[in-house]
Amino acid sequence: MAGFSLRGLFTRRGLIAVAAILGWFGLTVQLYLILLLRWEVGASLLGGLVNFFSFFTVLSNTLVASVLTCALNLRISRGQAFMLRPAVSGAVAASIVLVGLAYSLLLRHLWHPQGWQWLADELLHDVMPLLFLLYWWCCVPKGELRFKHIGLWMLYPVLYFAYLLLRGNLLGLYPYPFIAVDKLGYPQVLLNALGILAGFVLVSLLLLGLDHWLGRRQSRPL
């Protein structure tokens, strides 16, 4: 039986494994904290689970951890092949970069988490965006993205926003202050959403440009 090897840890596959573990760990800690708080106040744990998956940060980090896990080739399947498509990895990269930017620009100053919440916060908003961007840069085949992909990628934040409006209308709960219709009103919330969508498109265009540039570099003869 092979022993633990630092050399094995720092192979490309080993680094992807570390990134995947950190992603799932951050999500697990955040879920535990939400459920613990619900338990302490006697609220529904099922409601806590729904609340957990109502955050764009959680959904995007789940996609990140899933892609990284698929990249380990632990099991060959159609689902794995789909998740590893450059267009899918590009969509996930755009989404998780948006998570990091939006949090730093709009939300970080609103609270100061401590302890395990701080750890989960750092992993989901800072560490995983950087790690997945590094994975996308080094491990995802380049030169396959097209402008049409950005239109498809936009469906994710648009459908998510529509879900938040529907959920907020039914429950009066909004996971982010910049989409709180009860406090800001629909005109301001729609304006905020358009601004964030514009940021997503800009990030996507940047990734598209990098994809084309790196694809040309890789195709040049030595």
UniProtKB/TrEMBL annotation:
<feature type="transmembrane region" description="Helical">
    <location>
        <begin position="15"/>
        <end position="37"/>
    </location>
</feature>
<feature type="transmembrane region" description="Helical">
    <location>
        <begin position="86"/>
        <end position="106"/>
    </location>
</feature>
<protein>
    <recommendedName>
        <fullName>FAR-17a/AIG1-like protein</fullName>
    </recommendedName>
</protein>
<keyword id="KW-1133">Transmembrane helix</keyword>
<keyword id="KW-0812">Transmembrane</keyword>
<dbReference type="InterPro" id="IPR049713">
    <property type="entry name" value="Pr6Pr-like"/>
</dbReference>
<feature type="transmembrane region" description="Helical">
    <location>
        <begin position="150"/>
        <end position="170"/>
    </location>
</feature>
<feature type="transmembrane region" description="Helical">
    <location>
        <begin position="118"/>
        <end position="138"/>
    </location>
</feature>
<feature type="transmembrane region" description="Helical">
    <location>
        <begin position="190"/>
        <end position="210"/>
    </location>
</feature>
<feature type="transmembrane region" description="Helical">
    <location>
        <begin position="49"/>
        <end position="74"/>
    </location>
</feature>
<keyword id="KW-0472">Membrane</keyword>
